[in-house]
Design a protein that fits this description.
The protein is mainly alpha-helical. Among the domains are: 39 residues, no CATH class; 55 residues, no CATH class. Helix content is 77%, strand content 0%. Helix 4 runs parallel beside helix 6. The N terminus is likely disordered.
Length: 182
């Protein structure tokens, strides 16, 4: 299995012929296929590897902003986290993970509209980002949009069939949306 370090080395060797974004995209697609077919233990390992791939912007300075934002979020300093993620988005507007993490911070502030907007942007930039899709389901469910939340959780399960929290959420909502047009 090729590691991200090998992928970065390939970019350095191949130069402009192959961008880091392309290598990350190729690696993501490979990992997503493995994730779909993995048992729960293997899936957890693949999820962690995808997290590492998706958390790399290609710039050490931007990666530092992501780390600082995440550290602030984990410390409960939500406003500080939003500041770091917003600065990151200003400097790297095509970095899906920045929007995903800021959406998490907005959700914690119960700024659901802002969270939805950022999740939409994250999914536009990375349609395979099942964590952003799961977050979308959580926000939609919080807003009482159970049918839409069920669809989001179901899409997570299409990609990651052993995602426990998405399965629990889909199971919880299935009976509520049964009989309604999905």
């Amino acid at each position: 299995m090729r590691s991200l370090k090998h992928a970065v080395a390939a970019v350095l060797i191949l130069g402009p012929a192959m961008s880091l974004a392309q290598v990350q995209s190729d690696r993501s697609k490979e990992l997503l296929q493995q994730l779909h077919d993995a048992d729960p233990v293997g899936a957890a390992k693949i999820e962690r590897e995808l997290d590492l791939v998706w958390a790399r912007s290609g710039s050490p300075a931007m990666d530092l902003l992501l780390t600082r934002g995440q550290d602030a979020l984990e410390a409960g300093e939500v406003d500080t986290a939003i500041g770091h993620f917003s600065a990151l988005i200003d400097h790297a507007p095509d970095f899906a993970e920045a929007y995903h993490r800021r959406a998490t911070a907005f959700f914690r502030q119960e700024e659901f509209g802002l969270a939805l907007s950022d999740l939409g942007q994250a999914l536009t930039l990375n349609p395979d980002h099942f964590q952003a899709l799961f977050g979308l389901g959580v926000v939609l469910e919080s807003l009482g949009r159970e049918e839409d939340a069920f669809r989001a959780y179901s899409k997570v399960l299409d990609t990651y069939p052993t995602h426990d929290r998405a399965q629990e959420a889909a199971d919880r909502l299935r009976s509520r949306v049964a009989g309604q047009t999905l």
